[in-house]
Amino acid sequence: MEAFLVSTAIVTLAEMGDKTQLLSLVLAARFRKPWPIVLGIFVATLANHALAGAVGSWVTTVLGPQVLRWVLGLSFIAMAVWMLIPDKLDDDGDGAAPRFGVFGTTLVAFFLAEMGDKTQVATVMLAAQYSAYFWVVAGTTLGMMLANAPVVWLGDRLVKKVPIRVVHLVSALIFLVLGLLALFAGDATPLA
């Protein structure tokens, strides 16, 4: 259960102001059809994070406990630094009707935007940290939905009221603490 709660909290915070959250806002403004957009975000996130979680779980079978501890610790600290760099979204759309429908366009755009993104990298690291693949993927997916679904429905009003810089600082602090815990834990086993 700890893996689920930590994964949900970290990804919800990490997603605030992220390019995929900005993409959610752009899709909502462009298509004005919240249900297919939210469903597309959910399916894309579930597929992307299931793959990322599988990579994270696989890494634990390849690396020894000492190496894994250092890789995870340094990765979490690097993620803390990355959280302090704001994301931007290049809007190169021409306003044309979506070729694959609203759901299909959202699914493809969101899946591709999430590749190599902070939350995908966090999912890999969390799956490696905890021996709870299902709970990590469920938590990171829920975190994405908690951050993105309200943006689709409430749009610009919600984004303007959230102090993104503070959210990024809190996220960075959480990643830093996780990194330090991984590096300086008394034993070489994951923290789960």
Automatic annotation (TrEMBL):
Molecular function terms, GO-annotated: metal ion transmembrane transporter activity
Protein localization: Membrane
Transmembrane keyword on record: yes
One GO cellular component, as annotated: membrane
InterPro entries: GDT1-like (IPR001727)
Keyword Membrane part of the UniProt annotation: yes
Lipid bilayer topology: Multi-pass membrane protein
Chain segments annotated as transmembrane: 37-61, 67-85, 97-113, 133-154, 166-186
Keywords, sorted A to Z: Membrane, Transmembrane, Transmembrane helix
Protein family according to the UniProt entry: Belongs to the GDT1 family.
Protein name, UniProt field: GDT1 family protein
